Amino acid sequence: MNAVVKVNAHESSGDIVIDVQDLTKRFGTKTVVDHFSMQVRRGQIYGFLGPNGSGKTTTIRMLCGLLTPDEGRGTCLGYDILTESTKIKREVGYMTQKFSLYEDLSIAENLDFVGRMYDVPNRKQLVDSTLERLGLTGRRTQLAGTLSGGWKQRLALAACLLHDPKLLLLDEPTAGVDPGARRDFWDHIHRLADEGMTVLVSTHYMDEAERCHELAYIAYGKLLARGTGAEVIARAGLTTWEITGANLSAVGRSLEGAPGVEMLVPFGTALHVSGTDAAALRASVDKAASPAHAKAREVPTGLEDVFIHLMRGAVDPSAKTEKA
Ligand SMILES: Nc1ncnc2c1ncn2[C@@H]1O[C@H](COP(=O)(O)OP(=O)(O)OP(=O)(O)O)[C@@H](O)[C@H]1O
């Protein structure tokens, strides 16, 4: 019931917070973001996925005015990203991959310091309410240096929220954090989105991708897929089989390069085999599994299957140049 209410609230908000077209950034001769366009609505949690070095951080930095695109245009929070970056920065909370906290200051002192930097009015009250908002009140006097990874992450989020931003840009905010702390962090993100906060978050974790309202998958700076998780999976057109049994390595060997087999990935004690030609794939799976007495069953294709598939199909433009 709750989930239905949340989705409706999110869908009914029509205002666009990020609206950029053809963003392009080059470093030297390398194009790291290549004509990337996106629209993000208010209250949306928008996930940014892609392999290392695919241009996620560079895009985030262009959105908040820290980097100037070489091509492209657009608005963030209604401000022009080319000419109004100062205004954008004031209304954005940006959590970088390597956020810094003062380890020898307490949680509350860290927030107070951030409040001074932003020159926020009613600083003391704001620090108190932010501590409360993120469940940090009980730890306010604890030194940041003594916090576990999950609590540090939460403090970093609190620091981003102190100046009351309207948009959160989170660059791999939970990298290296244990699953329980990641889940808590995401519960906070959802609560903030329910209150109207817009969130753009980059991640490599599939469970986090599934918690986003919409996703964009990029590789080599180019958009390869976008939509809700279900849309991204459906558009990939993949069929996936799970094979279990005793002779999996032999089954795997006979599936390599077989008709219809585009991907072969070990998943724990099973093999996942995927492809876009369902009939050819099924025939190959039958042919490989039967002689080995392995069990094969069709399973729903997951986001991870799709992303691996997309990545394998992506062409590295710099590799092409080198060969030419
Ligand atoms: N200031 C810079 N000068 C030169 N090259 C850069 C600069 N910043 C980023 N790059 C390069 O641009 C490419 C994209 O980097 P970016 O950090 O945007 O990727 P990413 O998708 O965020 O990667 P990750 O998942 O590893 O964080 C990489 O090849 C990187 O080395």
From TrEMBL:
SMART domains registered for this protein in UniProt: AAA
InterPro entries per UniProt: AAA+_ATPase (IPR003593), ABC_transporter-like_ATP-bd (IPR003439), ABC_transporter-like_CS (IPR017871), P-loop_NTPase (IPR027417)
Record domain ABC transporter: where: 18-245
Gene3D superfamilies to which the protein is assigned, alphabetical: P-loop containing nucleotide triphosphate hydrolases
TM region positions: none
Keywords: ATP-binding, Cell membrane, Membrane, Nucleotide-binding
GO molecular function, one term: ATP hydrolysis activity
Name of this protein: Vitamin B12 import ATP-binding protein BtuD
Source organism phylogeny: Bacteria, Pseudomonadati, Pseudomonadota, Betaproteobacteria, Nitrosomonadales
Gene assigned in the entry: btuD_1
